């Protein structure tokens, strides 16, 4: 693997202690800003700064196709991946709307869409025209899996160099809840049926079929749960690997990672199995409707901030949660202390 992932800095715990003390001097009852206070301390530890800044956020949306869609595991056809990439480039998707709202830098990366797309704003890093159908054969080669991680890493470095102070990773890939559920089943060693959800909205009957396809595929592919490259190569997907690589870069540069829904959280688990300290830089922003998401976030040791019943992906939940993360930093930066405001402190 080209990129070395052993250079993630440790959290600055001393800064965390300083900020904890400082928060208790602000004009509010001790602990009254709840999880916002925890967030502020975490951000200070990640960034190593007493007044951490998360503006601007950088959003990277990785798009790729999945051969497993040939088995009928999604409610939508494969072409929707390419069509949605065009929609992202025209500014009409949910992630465009929420990225504009939070003033984010937004980049769309084709890392493996099964069709050609021409657009000046598209970052073309296509590794292959979609993965192979992992019910029948390996999704990709190990070299392709490594390239996808490296591409994600490099894209994150680029957006950080453009000024991103925290990262949101999004994805688009019809069929990717199937690949993510398969990876999670192998990583968690839990029964597939407890993890799999309806994705884009399949019927109960199709859900049972999806469960069976995933179970049989895992038996046939027999991926090594201790080897993230093997899991990606055998089951996919390219965009999931790209997100994992981007998270490793974000942590290396001390940039907080705002983890989105189910697919993104599975990518986070893959990043964790490549370099466990990456988790220190993660904030799980919301709880997805997909049943596996709860398992994935508890394997990360994280409690989601929001629970809005989202099941979209693209990075949308993270973008919606960004103002909460920013509020934590503004609490530190802008609130008066008891002393500066002349307010009487607790007896
Ligand atoms: C129009 C449309 C926009 C989307 N944006 C994200 N997804 C989400 O749904 C897909 C995963 O669900 P499944 O595994 O059931 O195919 C992914 O592309 C994910 O990003 C979308 C899906 C659709 C149809
Ligand atoms: O939570 C997600 O990321 C998700 C759920 C369903 C479909 N697409 C994405």
TrEMBL record:
Enzyme category, top tier: transferase
HAMAP family: CobT
Gene Ontology biological process terms in this record: cobalamin biosynthetic process
Gene of this entry: cobT
UniProt record similarity statement: Belongs to the CobT family.
Coiled-coil zones: none
Protein name (record): Nicotinate-nucleotide--dimethylbenzimidazole phosphoribosyltransferase
Taxonomic superkingdom: Bacteria
Keyword terms of this UniProt record: Cobalamin biosynthesis, Glycosyltransferase, Transferase
Known role: Catalyzes the synthesis of alpha-ribazole-5'-phosphate from nicotinate mononucleotide (NAMN) and 5,6-dimethylbenzimidazole (DMB).
Organism: Litchfieldia salsa
